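Sequence in, structure out.
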Amino acid sequence: MPEQPLLTRMLPEHQNLQVRRFVHEACGGSSKRPRVHDHGIVAYQLSGRSVLWMGTSYYLEERDFLLIPPGTPHQILDAEASECWGLAICTHCYAQVCDGFVSRLFSEIAQGTCAVRRVEAEHHAWVCGLFERLAKELGQPCPYQAYATQGLLGMLFTEIARAKETKSPSVPIMTPLVAETLRYLEHHALQPISLADVAAAMKRNTAYLTTLIKQHTGWTVMEWLTQLRMNEARRLLLHSDEFVDIIAERVGFASPSHFHQIFRRLHQRTPAVWRKEHRHLSAS
């Protein structure tokens, strides 16, 4: 990896799923730093060709799905003028969709399953329609939105699972220890675990593990743990009426005061104020 990746977010604070259509101008020889997201990415190539680095080079053509697991450094190396659908998804928030299949698929790709799948020509219009329906469903609050969204996600990920693996290489796109650590954090983030607990589970010392995760993903172990907890905290603040102190306990904080302190540092407002502001946005 040429240098430490830049960690960025595509998801707004109050959303755990977003669908957008992207149009890219032709580019070549990109020298930008690799990027990492704290959420999963599904890209679906509508037109043109592009080359993306993600541990190795992937060549994408029309009707190709590309899945990028959370914490995976990637960058565009070359591209024609092209268009694609992009879906950003908090894999932790949707861990139980389709009996855990969504989360499991990203995990398998991080460990070496082929990240590129090509859709049969006769299914192309159907897949495009699923993206369009998801984008419309997420465009504004509406009755039964959660049910509709999960149903559409289930159909979309079924198409991904059924699509044929391409000739793109099937290689681990993460160091195994990095992939295992991120998977452990995703599964245990809401428990009252510490850095020492994570290091013990990985059979490494805390300094080594922190340095390794930082070098490969741009965040330390504790930054990943905090972000996963905040993802769930924001979901509960937005979609439940539980007291803030109860939410703090649910997402793994030992004390409400520590939760308030961290939340305010990251969001520049208290959990109660954030809840009021973003519920208003979701209802508008």
